[in-house]
Structure formats: structure tokens, C-alpha cells
Please model this.
Amino acid sequence: MKDNESISKYFTRILTIVNQIKRLGDKIEEIRFIKKILRSLSSKFEHVVVAIEESKDFNNLTIDEFGEANQNSLWYLDSSANNHMSGKRELFATLDESQQGEVTFGDSIKRPMKGKRTIGITLKNREQQYISNVYYVPNLTSNILSLGQLLEKGYNIRTKELELSICN
Model:
């Protein structure tokens, strides 16, 4: 994994290689590639590796399920986003679909917002927390946490060297 590479780009790159190998007729044990991906992630993702290793039954996990689970658990911190957003409908146990509107991104592209609700996330220490007022934006490929919205709710945000911490 390259130092400046995101997990999703790295996973896409590895999946492309796996698919090329499969097209050549090679029989591949998917568990072998999943373990290689986990071993090759940089140390800054160690907490993600531990969480995946402890929560997944590797013997029954396909590479597609691994990628999907990985994408659902990633949240990007965005200082320019006004609201928390996710395009993953399955993250919302219930959804208030009476809350509809439009979201405008920094590049002026507009996307429909099809609902709003509180969702649960698992923290690095495996503690369950909830994020309220998360917009459901269909087809949004990343989960976004708004730093501004966290500050409004009273969270403290600290940066030191290459680490950002959020405390309530």
C-alpha cells in the first residue's frame, strides 16, 4: 500500500489484479488475498485490521463481502461538509423519508437527499456510538462526517502531528 493511498483505492487496485488472475484461469482462494490485503495495509490502519479480524469469519468471507464491509465502516472527516452523509442505505435501521432535499458539494454538483436519521458506528476501541442527523444521499460512495457539525454538538477536535482526535 502506498503511503498516500486510501483503503478504497488500494482495495480497488488489488481487486483488479485478482480479477485479472481469475480471468487467466487461476483458481484463487479468496481468503489468501483477504489476508494479504490486511497484512499489507499501513500501520495507520492497524485498528481497522484488528476490528475486521475479530468480527469476520474468514472461512466464509468472499473478497466482495470484505470490500463491502470495509467501505461501510470507513468515515471520512470533512471540514467543508455542512452535514454528516452516507450513501449506504443499510446503515440506517430506520429512515425519516419526510426529510428530503438537495445536497450541494464543493464542486457545485447537486445530489438528492432522501432522508435523515441516527446511525450507529463502532469506534476504534469497539465501543458503539451514535451519529445523529445523518443525511441519506443515494449513490454517495463515501461516508462523510462533518467536523463543523461535530463542533456544533460540543465535541473537541484536536490535531497533533498527523493525528486528529475527536472527544466529547
